[in-house]
Amino acid sequence: MKGYRKYFLNKLAWFFVTLVFAFVLNFTLPRLMPGDPVAAIMSRLAQGMSNATGVQAIYQQYADLFHTNRPILEQFFIYVRNVAQGNFGASISQYPRSVASVLSASIWWTIALQFPAIIVGWLIGNTLGAFAAYLKKGFDKVLLPVSIFASSLPAFGMAVIMLVIFGLGLKWFPTSGGYGFDMVPHPSLKFVWSVIVHYQLPFWSIVLIAIGGQAIGMRSMSIYELNADYVKFSRFMGIKDSKIIRYVFRNAMLPQITGLALSVGTMVGGALFAEIIFSYPGLGYTIMNSVMGQDYPLISAVTFLVTLMVLVATFIIEILYGIIDPRIKAAQAD
Amino acid sequence: MKHLIRQVFHSGKFVVGFVIFVAILLIVIIYPLIFRYPPLDIIGQGTFFPPGIYVNVYDSMISTQYTLNLSDAAAKRLASRLSDADRLAMKEWLVAFGIPEGEIDVADTAKLLDQWNTNFDPKTNIAGMTNAKRNYYIRLNASLGGLLSKEGVIIATKNAQTGALDQTGTVAQSAYANVGQVANVRVLPLGTDNFGRDVLSELVKAAGISLQIGFIAGSIATLIGLTLGLLAGYIGGLVDDLIMFVNNLFTVIPPIVLLILISFSIGQEKRGAVTIAAVIGLTAWPWTSRAVRAQVVSLRNRDHVNLSKISGHSIVYIIAADILPYIASYVVMALILQISSGILAEAGLSIIGLGPKTTTTPTLGLMMNWALIYMAPSLGKWWAYLPVVITIALISFSMNLMNTGLDQVFNPALRD
């Protein structure tokens, strides 16, 4: 048990170090943008105002609100204090809405869309890759090029192709939004059905991309393992094929789990683009809006949230991995 | 070396990928030499002209006229001018009038018109028909009369002094112009985009720029990754710890988040194609350095490296002569992957509006961004975005294929 605890504490320490680093980056970088964001709001608001002192007073009020008139270090500490209370400040492009309210409206869409999609894609991809390695011949000849092609497609490309074929061509599914545009979210059967129908295209486009990459990785891993000495030895010993296969795929699976931990960031990044293409009301769409609106409090917060999501996912995967793989315990016990 | 190259070209996957890639490269280089259209000139007044051959109407009117008596010309002309909605409305009226539905075929223009002309009478009263609908049919009937006219049209110019129209020529319905003799014909194989620019010329230029961005980004990322990986793996100790610390930080933070933050902080004005490429390169190195380090660690204690150390060679010499050759194939594969992911990263950034700010050079991502902003997918203007997606997919597919092929050559365990 000592080995696990050491592993767990090590990963936990890393989690916090990365979190702090990401937080500082997310605060600093958007604020380095040239130009005065408050001036940008003013140019929108002050159209047609001729009273210079009035404009000046309003400018002062907004500068106070966003703390842009203080040194950046002081801004940082104010920001830390506010974030600790769940307050990410006011959004510039959607003023007077607060960043927290914009995000709390969109984050659940993203979580409900991306994590099931990535897990389903990972499972299907690994199964297909294992079959390709084991069956070889025709199945492998077809699956490998198809997987390479699927994983070559950028996430937005896959999304656009799905949109054209199943949304516009066959008209099976609606092409934009998270639910019917004529609806207000409320718990009724009709609304739930609308959400489910709108869910399909973004979901499957993320799944398809994930399948390709995972299938290629699992195939290579399984081929490595199938050629390993212990497989040949087991065959000589007369152990049943089905039992050997179980060992092989268990061993091939382990690096795939680490692979998932390393690639979850890239996958989430790609999935954000699927959201943008389908105008899904999640974080991806919020990022796009905040970029268009030059809204740095929102960009800071939304990118931090994405990072946090990825960090938590990675952390969970690594902890699970530590429990599954006995070698981790052995390595830490030394 | 020669043997190695021959071996690489024996791999089917590598060859297919290589051929696709070289074909794209050749098109990017040769196309602008043959068709010297400025890629970003706004030629179309209006958005999204469909692909096709555009013949100048004025020039074809004043070019030599040939008379061809083709029997199906009139029918074709009618068919192209009678809209589907009108056909269905005509059918509806005829059915209401009492003609069996089976006898009416909306696709057969001649028969439909014949049935219409024999049966339609504006005075006929059909039960349940509103007055507005009856007026619609009367208008439709009148316009059909105009369609059936056998007269040609007169070309007239305005007299500068009197303001009267002087007839300068006629165009009969049987008049033809030879496209080869018309002075101005422009082929737009992929139509025009939302700004009215030739999509194909733009696409070729964009593919070139995107390849350059990918190449710059990939080279930077591979160079940084290789250097840090070599240092961390070979020197070890504190250097290793430090590099791996930074590496771990950047591995877990999603690369797209870093890209968004940095591009945003650079600001709209300073984002050029090269800047974006550099930013992509600076954020993409962690996995390369991690992989290079792992390889170097396994090489570090080999006998030939130890021998070099005992012989008193410098670190630089040992790395260059005893370690690099062993990981060269791996570095090439990493470079290929970095280039293709660099192209994808640029496209992604551009889609959310953080791509290169430029009005003089297009990139694949910017073209996609424009098409999306102008709602090309929902308007059904496939030529504005589908070729872009296909080009990106082909570039990245060809590179991944080359990579898989190389992998199978250099990793004997993967061969079956």
Produce the secondary structure layout.
The complex is a heterodimer of chains A (334) and B (416).
Chain A lengths: L1 H30 L5 H9 L6 H15 L5 H13 L14 H37 L1 H16 L2 H15 L19 H38 L2 H9 L3 H37 L5 H10 L3 H29 L1 H8 L1
Chain B lengths: L1 H7 L3 H23 L17 E4 L1 H6 L3 E2 L5 H9 L2 H14 L11 H11 L11 H17 L5 E6 L6 E7 L3 E2 L8 E4 L10 H37 L1 H16 L2 H12 L6 H11 L2 H15 L2 H8 L4 H37 L12 H10 L2 H4 L6 H25 L6
Antiparallel strand pairs in B: 1-6, 2-5, 3-4
Helix pairs in contact in B: 2-8, 2-17, 5-6, 8-9, 8-11, 8-12, 8-14, 8-15, 9-12, 10-11, 11-14, 12-14, 13-14, 14-15, 14-17, 15-17
Short description:
Chain A is mainly alpha-helical.
Overview of this structure, please?
By secondary structure, chain A is mostly helical. Chain A is built from 13 helices and no strands. In chain A, α7 packs across α8. The radius of gyration of chain A is 25 Å and the shape is globular. The model of chain A has no long low-confidence stretch (mean pLDDT 80). Chain B is mainly alpha-helical. A two-stranded antiparallel sheet of chain B has the order 1-6. In chain B, α2 packs antiparallel against α17. Chain B is elongated. Chain B starts with a helix and ends in a 6-residue tail after the last helix. In chain B, 36% of the residues are buried. At the A-B interface, α1, α6, α7, α8 and α10 of A face α9, α10, α14 and α17 of B.
